[in-house]
Every structure is written in C-alpha cells, then in structure tokens.
Design brief:
This protein is mainly beta and 178 residues long. It has 1 helix and 13 strands. 17% of the residues are buried.
C-alpha cells in the first residue's frame, strides 16, 4: 500500500504509507479496553489527522517499529474491524469475556512545546518556471504524556504513554526562476 511515510527527515510517498492509521485505530481500542502496552511507537512529528487527542497514536514500520499489546483478560479476544469506505472510517471493536474493569483515558498533559524551525526551500528542476509547491508542513515539537486509570474490583492503577515529537519544518519545492 502506498501513502505518506516519514523517511530521511521528510514526509514522502512510500510503501506502507497509511498503515499507521490502522495501527492507531487498533491501539486506541485496545488501550481504552485497558490492555497492557508492550510496545507502542510515535511518529517523528505531530500528525494532525490523529487528533483531536494529541499523542494518542501508534506508528508501525517494517523493520522493527511495531504495536504490541498484551491480553490480560483471562480469555480469548476477537478484534473486529468494520470498514466504512464511503465515510473513510474504520471501526475497531474488542470482543471477549465480559470484564469488570473501567478505563479512563486523560487528555494529554503537555510538558514542553518547541516552535517549528523556519521553512526550507528546495530547488526542483523538473517543476515549471516560477512554480512553488509545499511538500512538508510545519509542526511544533511537543513533550507530553497521556495517563490511563484502570479501575477493577476495588483497585485502581494508573499508567502513561509518553510522546516526544520533534519540531518539523515546512518544505517548499521551487521551480527555476521565471
């Protein structure tokens, strides 16, 4: 599958682009079900279409960047996906033995925000004279965390996922001077 990937400090078209939208949707469902996080990775920079909850995502990339959760329910789980292509919506449902746990996921706590660097202009001789095309978009850097409280049979435990986004510059390609 092709789509946007982060490679070499740029956002470019590449094999596997778009897979993170699926892994993020799966992560959110499993996290909200209270399952332990074994491995979860973030993107290099803040990707706006995973919001409004900043930092609540799971990037995957081959090789070595994966999403792994643990089934601690004491029974089997069925992860059911429902695709609504007309709406560009994917639902993920988690089915299993009824649990007594209740899960509360907090909004992000932002510890630091770093302004994005100035835009970069890159010459592209294949573009028409005088043309300018934006190929990357600026995002501020963030250091943040999201907490989750899991209440179950009179006990409560809280954990967190941390996210450290790099500041990201806008990049424009320019054609020859007209």
């Amino acid at each position: 599958m092709g789509g946007l990937i982060i490679s070499g400090g740029r956002t470019v078209d590449g094999l596997g682009g778009g897979v993170c939208q699926v892994s993020t949707t799966v992560f959110r469902a499993l996290y909200q079900a209270g399952l332990p996080v074994v491995e979860r990775n973030q993107h290099s920079y803040r990707v706006g279409y995973y919001e409004p909850q900043i930092g609540f995502e799971a990037a995957v990339y081959d090789p070595g960047v994966d999403l792994k959760m643990k089934n601690d329910t004491g029974g089997p789980l069925l992860i059911k996906t429902i695709n609504h292509p007309g709406k560009s919506v994917l639902e993920v449902e988690v089915w299993g033995i009824k649990q007594t746990r209740r899960v509360i996921v907090s909004p992000a706590t932002i510890l630091a925000r770093v302004p994005h660097p100035p835009a970069q202009y890159v010459f592209n001789p294949r573009m028409r004279a005088g043309a300018v095309r934006q190929v990357d978009w600026a995002q501020d850097g963030f250091n943040l965390y999201i907490t989750r409280t899991i209440k179950d049979e009179g006990t409560a435990r809280t954990d967190r996922v941390t996210t450290n986004y790099r500041p990201w510059r806008a990049v424009y390609e320019t054609g020859p001077r007209g």
